[in-house]
Amino acid sequence: MRLDTSYLAYITKDELRVLLAVEMGMRNHEYVPGSLIEKISKVKRANAFVILQNLLKNKLVTHTKQKYDGYKLTYLGYDYLALSVFYKRGSITKIGVGKESDIYRCQNSDGNIVVLKLARLGRTSFRTVKKNRDYLQHRTQYNWLYLSRLASVKEFAYMEALYKNGFPTPTPIDWNRHGIVMSIINGYTLCNVASIQDANPVFKQCVELLEKFAQFGLIHSDLNEFNLMITDDLKIRVIDFPQMVSTSHLNADYYFQRDLDCLNTFFHRKFKCDEMAHIELNSIQIEKKLDLEVKASGFVKKELHKENDLDYLDEYQKNQEKEDSENEIEEDDQESSQDDHSQRSMEISQEELSDIESQEQTEKQEIEQKQEQKQEEDQKEKQQIEVPKQELTELDTRYIKKVVKKKYRNKQHIKKNNNKNKEVDIEERIQDIYL
To answer: Residue 207: which of 248, 160, 162, 268 has the closest Cα?
Structure first.
């Protein structure tokens, strides 16, 4: 799915408010009802309906009526929310679509070329992410947009921590929702390099990088020719970090040996490198436990010295979400001062959302109670109308049978079919007439 930014220049503030309301409602709903969208966005019902129709036309949301009437964000709508924040911060000013569907070449407010990466979990190639990676943790309910957000949060945190500790990574610039802005690397991935005159020094750099990860308590778990880039100066840069694990992981030896085997086979097969590396994870001394700082998969919680120590990911995500919501709401309210409904603050906490849901539940309960009362009243009326049946004598039944037969034959209520599938129960007719 390629990023289509043609409608981004024409999107209104109210449409962004409605998109943000759908995103907030999707925390507790698979499809957000229209009434809840109106309450969160604080947009009038008629305006909200028109806005949702425009968003449907541009494929920013989807609509369903199977279980109940509701709306759901698409990846394109989620992209627009992240891009609007990047535009306001000045991280991006122009967008150009690149060759890959998830990586885009952009320009920031300073005129520098940057890279925008948008997570796309939920495709056919990422369907097993809930089994292979620990994004869900203890959660039982999830959606792919939320998993994409978690993946980008972890990758940005890993990149920032590695960059501060001197690893050859891109410079992390900004993060929002499922998007990451980073510096561009003027180089090529090793899979696209045809030949290298002397591949042994490059191979040594890759092996040293693998050892350096282990010295800091981390294993890349996907260190191959697709995630390693080489510059014109024959220097190695590493990308793609969300699958990193700790050296304390149960399968740490397997992941470390797999990365080492990938490097050995690739350089020997493509560049005819004579050297082969043989390293064991147990022989590497850990200098700094960076896996605790970034909470990589498999880290030991007992090694944390304080309860609130090194809660990097949680604090970063919470603070970033608060800043984003406050900045978006303040800017929208200041710019749209002409409209009364857009002057009000759009920030809604989890408690307010729970209050809205509790109100909906109470309304449903009241409706169910009214229906039950009506059913009870109807039953009482039927009981009052019912008259006890009287016993008929044989003479009465014979006489009434004759009368009923003549009556129904004259009026052609009894039809004589060749198949004789339909028959009239005369005794039931007699009971009805007699009573």
So the answer is: 268
Residue 176: CB partners within 8 Å, gap ≥ 6? 82, 85, 86, 320, 324
Inter-residue contact 218 to 108 (CB < 8 Å): no
Selected catalytic residue, list 222, 253, 311, 333: 222
According to DSSP, the residues that pair with 73 across neighbouring strands are: 61
Q: Where are the beta strands (DSSP E) in 80-213?
A: 94-97, 103-107, 113-118, 172-176, 179-183, 187-189
- Per-residue pLDDT tens over the stretch 388-434: 444 555 556 666 667 666 666 655 544 554 444 444 455 555 555 54
222 noted as active-site residue:
yes
Length of the chain: 435
Q: For the residues of 80-111, what is the DSSP string, one character each?
A: HHHHHHHHHHTS-SEEEE-SSSSEEEEE-TTS
Whether the CB-CB separation of 17 and 347 falls below 8 Å is answered with no
3-state secondary structure 129-145: HHHHCCCCCCCCCCCHH
How much is the pTM? 0.57
Q: Are 105 and 348 in contact (CB under 8 A)?
A: no
Residue 400, H or E segment: helix 394-410
Instruction: Give how far Cα 31 sits from Cα of 71, 327, 338, Å.
Output: 5, 26, 32
